[in-house]
Protein 1
Amino acid sequence: MRDSAALAGAAPATRASRGIGEAAAAWVLCAPAGLALFALLLGPSAALLVLSFSDWELGAPELAWIGLGNYVELTTDPVFRIALRNTLIYVGVVMPASIGLGLGVALLVEGGSRLRATFRAIYFLPVVSLLVAMATAWQYLLHPTIGPVNRLLALLGISPINWLGSSDWVMVSLCMIGVWENLGFVVVLFMAGLTAIPRELYAAAELDGARSAMDRFRLVTWPLLGPTTLFVVTITAIRCLRVFDTVQALTRGGPNNASQVLLHAMYQEGFSYFRIGYSAAITVVFLAIVLLLMLVQTRILDRRVHYS
Amino acid sequence: MRPGEERSLLHDLPRLALLGLGACFILLPYVWMFAASLKPGSEIFRDSLTLWPERFYAIENYGKALSEVPMLRFLFNGALVCALILVFQMLFAVPAAYALAKLRWRGREFLFGLIMLGLLIPYHVPALPLYVVFARAGLLDSFAALVLPFTISVFGIFLFRQAFKSLPDELIHAARMDGMSELSIVWRVIMPNAWPAATAFATFSIVAHWNDLFWPLIVVQSHAMATPALGVLFFRAEEAGNDVGALMAAAVMVTAPMIILFLLAQRRFIQGIATAGLKG
């Protein structure tokens, strides 16, 4: 079939046979990816949705269809409620903090030419670093007795804080590590957006009386950065929603579920307690939030005029 | 503050100071991790903030991290898994992306719609059913389990389709005139002209899978199959894991490969991961 496609191109064949050859070649070329797409992504995702309506536990001989039973249980499950609340807090803190600081850093880095590449590389470092390993480094830094952070605070006369072991501080610590982890990602995306803004616009704004840096930011940078910002907000929010590695490495949801998050609750239910149906329902909630964020982004993009 | 404007060093100082302060926060865990990996336990536990070790203990710490658990095996597993995943992703994604970008056929819009749908689904979603299937097939704790779920990269298809679309059609017409099959056009004509997309995708894929914890945590049970991310957790769970210096040495060893690669090819890395933001 592929040979015929090649021949059809070589010889002055009719349009119709050329089209058939091209279609056949296309199907052959797409077959591996198409099959894998169904077998490994779309099929299992559909299966997950179906399983969320069952009470199946791994190893159990039978399963029963319980309709929305799992979802009803979720509404009264205290662990899930904490997980959902913590995840939303995490997104609500880490996303705006990373974006605010990231925009500031990007503006500063782009604001001059000295050490630009060096700073960009430093801020990007956490994005390529193995998060579990860096989490153990944070664990040492934040250790209540031997940790350098508490020792530094002691020099300032502040009594030691149990950063990861007390339920008051554990989310604060995880959020701080979250900002550390996401900042560089935001910086790089904003830097790309900033370099796309035409220089002449700043000169024009200055002629029109935008004297201060603040005026120029308000009149030129911020509006032109709009589409980038929307994109960065969505991506960062989704990255934050997926928080798992630091929780698994540092707290396992503890102490006393104080740092439980959605994916970790899903992991525990599914892979520690083997409650497949219930874990599937948590995953569906997670997916629903991701899709909702994407939907909001598309809606805003559709409504907004594109700057060209 | 106008972008790109050149200023005197004195005027530039506030900017450099602010950026330097932020950079300290970013570098904090790296500096302490590395410093602790060179120190004996007695110095780590002593109440002091000095970074440089009085007694150089690197050989003992790194030696312990290498001998208590098969650390080199973890690193080898990580490299092998990343390489296998990348090869299969390219093998599957590149021909499909070519068909979607350059061939006219019925079903193209439909398949592309499915790809876009796939882009919306985080990989944690199919994990549970895939785990059940792998468990039933007796495939847990194997390279197959570590590699198979990631052989399809919808993001890869999307990225390569964009790149191929901008290549001129004449390239393909000329190759067909020479009697090349569509498959050899893909690998011998299209790919060599799309290296920027390929390297961007490769860096993104390698970083993502070297650093992944979620899936290896689910399917791996033995030390022999552990990837670097899992290796750190295994080491910490051992008795030696209470030895902070050795634990930091282990952390340095699993983090270093990606950081070295990044420092060697910064531009490609940043480009690859920034474009990958699309996938979220």
Protein 2
Amino acid sequence: MAVSALNASHEAVHARYESVDPLYREVRDIRLLGFVLFLISDVVLFSMFIFAYLYLRNSVPNWPPITTAGQLPRFDVAFACINSCVLFGSGATMHAAMESWKHLNKPAFNLWMLATIVLGIGFLSGQAYEYQHVPVTWTGSTMGASFFTLTGMHGFHVFIGVIYLITLYIQANRGVYTGSKYFGLTAGTLYWHFVDVIWVALFYLFYLM
Amino acid sequence: MAVAAAHLGQVDQHDHIHPEPTSFIGKYIFSLDAKVIGIQYMITGLLFFIISGLLAEVVRIQLLRPEGGFVSNDTYNGVYSLHASGMIWMTIIPLMTGGFGNFVMPLMIGARDVAFPWLNLISFWIFPPAGVILFSSFLVGAPDAGWTEYPPVSVQGPPGTSLWCVAIFLIGISSTMTGLNFMVTIMKMRAPGMTFTRMPLFVWAQLATALLNMVATVALSAALAALFIERTFGVPFYDPGRGGSPILWQHMFWFYSHPAVYIMILPAFGFISEIFPTFARKPIFGYKMIAFSSIAIALLGFMVWAHHMFTSGMAPWLQLPFMILTMVISVPTGIKIFSWLATLWGGKIEFHPAMLFALGFVVVFTFGGITGIFLSAVPVDLHLHGTYFIPAHIHYVLFGGSIFGLFAAIYYWWPKITGRLMDERLGVWHFWSTFVSFNATFLPMHFLGIMGMPRRVAQYRPEFQFWNDVCSIASFVLAASTLIFLYAMFSSLTRGKKAPPNPWNARTLEWQISSPPPYYNFKTIPAVLKNPYDFGEPLPYLGLDPSDKEDHRQAKPPGGAPPEPAHA
């Protein structure tokens, strides 16, 4: 059984996805559109704060503003790189989890799902460590304000995402989803990839730019 | 047509996505039904309309005399700030989208409810607390920087400014959720055969509004969140003393608030597009142009926000593009107005109160639109910015536009919502007294602005007194004429005649079922063959269940079961 499931082709996955009963398909499409629109409005939220950051950055002659200790703030780019890789890795494991589910491979799904959750928690721990060592404070300068507000918002999204993934893991193991009816998992995957993509922008803006 | 007909009969009333509630709370308080939620929005919105209107009267009493003295200067600042905030966020936007959008839009597209009823329930129940928080800011010191709350004044403002942030943030979240919900509903839940170019124009208007609500309102939420954390935790965003920029607020605020004026006017355009063909008994002129111009307005609306900031010290090279784009946006609006006029041309016009308000809308909104063109020109704006010309313009488009549109919509859909007819004579009196006193109130404000009277002042120079007194006295008449409206609603509810399903012989779907509509809206979802404006032809719907037209109010046993025929 497991072997045949592993070998199930993409065509079979696709056929299963499409041949689900029409009522479920309608509800699934409605929810998918709703969820994508929610993500778009979330993108606008991040874009506004990114706009604020770029605006503040360009409205002063010298950037970054000097810290209260009289030094230029320097971020630990190497550490941020490693932490980013943890988050991007979790995107890959999430994709693997979703593919395993579609190919009816439940044990692999469980494994990849747990890996994603662990990596997500790892990223949050890394961020908590970084928050204690960055040379800026939230209220100290416009740079700190933008940095902590944006990465904090993102971290909050990751935190919600981890809870979301744990819920999905429990639900999947209780038989809420089947091989053809798994909209909740699709939404969770979309959300997790969205969080990843936002981080790409933030990583560039704060560490590379 | 065959395809559309094949869908018929697949769904019956038991497929309603949520069962009819039986308890009082489930029916009237925490209802999932879009119709009930729409009515809840309307009642709450009308309540806030009265409160905000009374605040406006306080402003006008204060300005009767040059030295003011009716309220203290601080209170006065709070009064005009909350008048505008209350009217914009607690009255017009919830009534336009939450109220009429919820009640009418699902009926018009032949759906049984919106896409996410629970989300709808939540977005309504955020609204009354937000209003209470907003007006309770008087208790701790009301926000005093106007509805735009420009920093740095708002950063240093009284504690009520934080409450203002919370209230507007909440109503923003509510608008975003409604926008998302409506967008999915309109995209995915139309009756079979109702293609995009067969949708009623009100639905087109709601689609464009939903897009704006979903995207632009989040920008406001971000700006408010930043202001709130700056005030509460001292995080520098807007305070120039700490490296922040007050202009940043203006950019973020107007990136929302300019689209917001289209959130407040596009649904009104939709009302007019429904009312004109019905009462002129003619097909709408230029259906597609009206529909697409709504979308064009929504998209262009995102590109003109900086015309509010010509005097703010933003980069001068930005002035020209924003000036031109602002003038461009009057093109789709003009397309609509000329299409409406062409709809009236040669029609057999019935002067029902709804039609009167719709005609009044076109007159005063066009006037307000033209003063908008004045203001979009940088040289004129430099002279008029911050004067009474601005309140004059905004009241012509928001009162003469949005509120006239809402009055028209209330007169038009009242029988459908309540199942009772309104006294048309009272409606005609309401219209004429409102129309005359509206113009007497707001037209002189243009003169005051050109004479140089600044806005938001509690005292003014004596030479402005004559026109201020004209405005104030006319505004009292305006308030009194609203009493006629309240009385007309009250008398219709208590002793109005029962309304037939389709009192105006309108052709959109909501009029093809009983007034008020049954809980499940349509027993069988009809198929749609054409757009609904071809007066003189048979109705373009297949498969409507005739029993949906029956008055289901009498002899209804508890539990929502249909009445049983009497057996021998």
Protein 3
Amino acid sequence: MRAPALEEARGPARDGAGVEAPAGPPAGAHLLGVRGVSKRLGRAQALFDVQLEVRADELLVVLGPTGAGKTTLLRTIAGLERPDEGAIFMAGQDVTASAPAERDVALVFQNFSLYPRWTVRRNLEFPLRAPGRSVGEAEIRRRVEWAANLLNISRYLDREASRLSGGEMQRVAIGRAIVRRPRLFLMDEPLTNLDAKLRERLRVELVELRRELKTPMVFVTHDQAEALSMADRIVVLSEGRVLQTGTAREIYERPLSPVVALQLGQPAINLLPVHRVADRWLAPDGTPLMAAESAGPAERLLGIRPENIHLTALETEHHRTAGPFDAVVEIVEYIGPTTTLLCAWAGTHVHILTPYRGRLRPGDRVLPRVDAARAVLFDLPLGAAHLASRVPPRLPSSSSPLPAPASKGTPI
Amino acid sequence: MSFLALAGLEKTYRDGTRAVRGIDLSVDGGELIVLLGPSGCGKTTTLRMVAGLELATGGSIRLNGKDVTTMRPSQRDVGMVFQFYALYPHLTVRENIAFPLRAAGWSRSEIGGRVDDVAARMGLGKLLSSFPRQLSGGDQQKVSLARAIVRRPAIHLMDEPLGTLDADQRLAMRELIRAEQLASKVTTIYVTHDQEEAMSLADRIVVMEGGRIRQVGTPSDVYDRPNDLFVASFVGSPGMNLIPGRVTEDSGRPAFVSKEGHLHIDVPRPARPGPATLGIRCEHVHEASDGPVFGRVLTEEYLGSASHVHVQTDAGRVIMRGSSGAARRRDTELRLRLDPAQISMFDAVTEKRL
């Protein structure tokens, strides 16, 4: 089975340990299980009861900001750190106490970590010549050439590593991981230090390469675009805890909490405190935003992604009489296929992403319409008032367990 | 007359490396110009020559009516911003913003007036006696921008100032820079390798490669009408789809035929027969049951608000921007239509736009 099992993602990671592999083909089987792992580093709690599974043929992205515990998690899986609590399983075996070499995983770091004075070929051969490995010369040659060919670096094989560009070096570093044919790839932000343009290309290359190798991969990043575009499934990590696990679509469209919602999407999701009056949700300044069901709490937090606010009556914008619920355009960013607007609206600032490429200018008035089917309503957490500020840097995540999913997002 | 004029500007290092190979550029007062290109294209060297941190080995620089080509940095009245540094936690907002002015030896009253000015314009007026830890993340960013620009020189020079920030902070800072520049009208030259940053900030973009200018134009110019194949592929995320082939007139009117001959498309504009490359942006490639291009899905890149679908076609890999509604499975067969009004044609030999 070649296609990654995209449709099988589950909700909160909490019940991850209990998830059975789907019946039938082994593609859904777990290669790696992280079961209730906690880890302290010095005085800081780096990981807290982390549960996750990596299936036999998938790319699992661990997404989180700096300091979320991503690297510690990866090092624990690799066997470079020992968990304080919990266990690591590989292919059904408890490897918590096994040395890194016994786990047969390959790590790729953000910094290319090559031997600069060695040729590309010698760098690629290195893992195969490690003590304890007995790979024949002919086989070494075959594997190095196979890897070089896959990664499009064959023509650099005899060049010194220090003479390569950043992108070429990272390809060699990836090559060094794949020649060994490990059971699992662990990637720690491998694209972060590269130019935007190169990153964009390597993203696709890496996904296609992994699929060809049919080897599972755990890919750690803080970059939401990388996570969305590369992942079969995403684990959202924040302050050492798993906040949500699911496909990119599930997490993007139905985030379980505002904290998760803010992690994905650029510009970030708009969050507005709303209250219900009759059958409508209103912003604090009284702007009607969308229809409301009559049941449930009367005060909530509305999450609406910039592309799900539509502009109405654009063609007639200059002739229209100004309405009381107009938005005023403050910033227009034209970025290729879409235009991003920052508007003053509903007593706050909202981002609107529109395919419209007309002559919108700062100061213009537009009438936004919220696509109610794509809005998410969150229960108001403590201190939700912060969320209304336009530039949420890092939201403090509460230390209480996540509220039950039933109290969360309106279905899309 | 232009506010900043670069004429035949060159920089050749002692080891013979030609970092900048003759740049002509004219910048109006109040413009925000972005120098965009891959690493090694000469954009930073150009900026550093304007700042006076490097001396030109050829050509001239006129700034605000004066020839500054050989002047020292301090004589040029330029403000260089390398990055937005963290705020000093033990200093108030006022002291943080005033810091560069104190360092430059301004008098107490001059400093007070200028800090009040900048703070008022950026909505920081009420926060001047707060400490950074008491501010929201957004206000902290405003303070750090205010500190970077408080000196108000004749021109701001910014060298990838957002490089060290997280993605969400970058976006917010970008908007702040734009809003502040629109308000202050200080001419600004901004260097980046990130085409999205360039598109969103610039009045005009200067695309550079190999020490030369490839194109100067508004974001819309360089995106919709790239001058050459380099600009077509560098600008945009992803770059333009490029399909090699040739223009023929076999059927009486000019048509583009892909290399393997599978793709046959009428060319809307007059074009000479010969080797050519067809360019089309991913948002102008559509799925259509009667489309002329046949292909299979290789990979889908989900982006949240949209999807990039990589399709293996008879004419090579083509990326289509689609709705993010439903996942597209690998190996799904489909037909594509290229919006004829949005096709760019390039000469395959000179790589220039036809």
